[in-house]
């Protein structure tokens, strides 16, 4: 029998790919060749008028700006609280110590249907900077298999998009306070002034799910309790992590690497290891079709049945070794009933089964929820229903505010679970950019006509 070469991925029955854990060890912070034009610093003075305002400059905002560029829409301004494209995205991954993305090489904010350098091409162009393991991942991606992308490869690619699509000079550092749609315009109020636009695209991303108020009677969390996107005290010797998903796995792994004793509270009966939070078929057109056009109750049922917190396969061997060695204690099927300050500056968690777990710090990774526009748009414009906005399924514009569109997790009830993924951003962007550019042309705005061969209708 022929043996597989050392370091090769293991294959189980059928075509299931079980990746090796060393994929998680990709470098971070490598130097990458910069595009010819250096990115400009963000502006602090938003213009008073623009054809399109994009709220948020994360991966979704970058996708929208790049797609509008291809459609010839140049009068675009991106309003972002940090003023840096994808800045919050990478700050969060670095805070978690995350070195690779769950998304494969096909999932990137590049523009589909245009002659751009896509993420896989970008990695191949910089072959000499990849590790042997990463090169194998690229080969697997070329063969149509699942692949894992290093964070710094993705960051370099995003910087490439920023420069080549003229995004940097359109970003303004500003906090958006209010978006007021009207029949012929949209007024955007920020902490640095007001911008009047013909169209607005909301790309606000997702916010963390907060702990139930009953855990500590509401208000501020007890000392020593943090959420996943907040720093943890470096001198902690015993850490409690609450959560069942990939973020929790990163927190647990980081705590173990720091030499801490870790208690992991999983409120579900057990942890799930798989490629994504949802079945991969929802990332394909036929999967998205299962959501669009079906009755509302059926969509909710599909979300409830198929979306669940999961952890990348790569984590499993290391976490199982840590548990077997006693460095990691896992409390499965244990809901939290109370979190309070304990003796000696510790944090104490009371579990539903009666046990108490104490640590120097407790990190909560309870998931994220989509920002659907409430708080920015009038409630009547959002049309909130079961936590989702009412959208035009063809253009992803708000039904009651057609000059405002959304890209990101908020489009989940139209595109399905893939909407919150980077690849889903690209699908949503194709619809939004096509609709916005067409509207601007009909209204007589100065939109540069792209070459006929590069125009692509919404997907």
Commentary on this structure:
The chain has 459 residues and is of the alpha/beta class. Mean pLDDT is 88; it is low at 1-15 and 451-459. The longest helix is centred in the last third of the chain and has 21 residues, at 422-442. 26% of the residues lie in helices and 21% in strands. It folds into two domains: 17-206 and 369-454, FAD/NAD(P)-binding domain; 210-274 and 310-366, FAD/NAD(P)-binding domain (3-Layer(bba) Sandwich), CATH 3.50.50.60. Strands 3, 4, 7, 8, 9, 10, 21 and 22 form an eight-stranded mixed β-sheet that branches. The chain has a five-stranded parallel β-sheet with strand order 12-19-13-14-15. 44% of the residues are buried. It is built from twelve helices and 22 strands. Helix 1 (59-70) runs parallel beside helix 12. The protein is globular. It has helices at 59-70, 87-96, 119-125, 132-142, 151-164, 246-257, 285-289, 296-306, 316-324, 379-382, 412-415, 422-442, and strands spanning 10-11, 17-18, 49-55, 76-80, 100-101, 149-150, 171-173, 176-181, 186-190, 193-202, 206-208, 225-227, 238-242, 261-266, 328-332, 336-341, 347-351, 356-359, 361-364, 368-370, 397-398, 401-406. Residues 1-49 are annotated as: Disordered. Residues 22-33 have a biased composition (Basic and acidic residues).
């Amino acid at each position: 029998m022929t043996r597989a070469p050392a370091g090769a991925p293991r294959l189980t029955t059928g075509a299931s790919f079980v990746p090796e854990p060393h994929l998680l060890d990709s470098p971070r912070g490598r130097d990458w060749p910069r595009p010819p034009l250096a990115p400009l610093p963000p502006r602090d003075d938003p213009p008073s008028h623009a054809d399109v305002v994009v709220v948020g400059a994360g991966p979704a905002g970058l996708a929208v700006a790049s797609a509008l560029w291809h459609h010839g829409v140049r009068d675009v301004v991106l309003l972002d609280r940090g003023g840096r494209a994808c800045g919050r995205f990478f700050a969060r991954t670095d805070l978690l110590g995350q070195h690779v993305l769950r998304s494969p090489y096909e999932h990137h904010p590049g523009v589909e249907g245009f002659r751009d350098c896509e993420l896989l091409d970008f990695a191949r162009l910089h072959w000499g900077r990849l590790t042997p393991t990463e090169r194998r991942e690229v080969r697997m991606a070329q063969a149509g298999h699942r692949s894992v992308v290093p964070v710094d490869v993705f960051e370099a690619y995003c910087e490439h998009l920023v420069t080549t699509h003229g995004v940097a000079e359109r970003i303004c550092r500003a906090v958006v306070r209010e978006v007021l749609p009207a029949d012929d315009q949209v007024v955007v109020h920020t902490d640095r002034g007001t911008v009047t636009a013909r169209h607005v695209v909301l790309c606000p991303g997702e916010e963390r799910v907060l702990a139930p108020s009953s855990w500590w009677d509401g208000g501020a969390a007890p000392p020593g309790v943090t959420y996943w996107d907040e720093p943890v005290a470096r001198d902690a010797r015993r850490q409690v992590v609450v959560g069942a998903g990939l973020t929790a796995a990163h927190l647990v792994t980081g705590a173990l690497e720091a030499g801490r004793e870790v208690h992991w509270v999983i409120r579900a009966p057990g942890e799930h290891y798989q490629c994504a939070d949802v079945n991969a078929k929802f990332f394909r057109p036929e999967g998205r079709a299962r959501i669009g056009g079906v009755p509302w109750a059926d969509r909710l049922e599909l979300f409830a049945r198929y979306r669940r917190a999961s952890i990348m396969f790569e984590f499993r061997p290391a976490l199982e070794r840590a548990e077997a060695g006693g460095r990691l204690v896992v409390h499965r099927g244990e809901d939290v009933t109370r979190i309070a300050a304990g003796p000696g500056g510790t944090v104490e968690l009371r579990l539903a089964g009666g046990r108490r777990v104490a640590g120097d710090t407790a990190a909560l990774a309870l998931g994220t929820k989509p920002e659907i526009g409430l708080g920015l748009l009038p409630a009547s414009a959002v049309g909130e229903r079961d936590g989702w906005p009412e959208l035009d399924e063809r253009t992803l514009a708000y039904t009651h505010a057609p000059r405002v569109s959304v890209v990101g997790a908020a489009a989940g009830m139209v595109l399905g679970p893939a909407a919150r993924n980077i690849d889903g951003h690209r699908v949503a962007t194709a619809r939004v950019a096509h609709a916005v550019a067409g509207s601007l042309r009909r209204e007589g705005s100065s939109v540069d006509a792209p070459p006929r061969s590069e125009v692509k209708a919404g997907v």
